[in-house]
Amino acid sequence: MMSRVKNGMIAGVAATAVVSVLEAVNMFALKMFPAFPLIVAKMFGMTGNVAAGWALHIFMGIVILGTAFGLIYDRLPTKVPMAKGITFAVGAWVVLMIYVIMIVPGQRILPSGGFDIIAWMLATHAVYGAVLGSTFNRLLQRDKHHIHPAGAAPAH
């Protein structure tokens, strides 16, 4: 069980890094969509605090989502690791949308006319899931190849 959590968190690091690069390019170069770290900060009552938004984004991507993915990996539909990751991440996006749109609508967390940010968040969640699923599967395969039968010694 612990290796699943550890592997989930390691896969979360890889997936969060990829999505963070995409978000940084959006924030500092393209400026096409409202900055997701600012939205995360606002969700937690720290409006305008970019550093807190980044920290929370990274924490959730690695610790919360990475751990959860490691724990439920085998229960996710499909046998394709990348599809498992995308399914999981899109599910996380749905939970996020329910929270933002239905639970705290009075706080106006998303900017008005925010379909573009909703689509951007869906796309980045899908990228996160693809990297999460494929990385987690590679870690599982690596662990399976390093297991020796009980009482057996390695050949070399």
From TrEMBL:
Keywords: Membrane, Transmembrane, Transmembrane helix. InterPro entries: DUF6789. The chain crosses the membrane at residues 51-73, 85-105, 117-136. It comes from the Bacteria. The keyword Membrane applies. The keyword Membrane applies. Pfam families: DUF6789. This is DUF1440 domain-containing protein. It comes from Brevundimonas terrae.
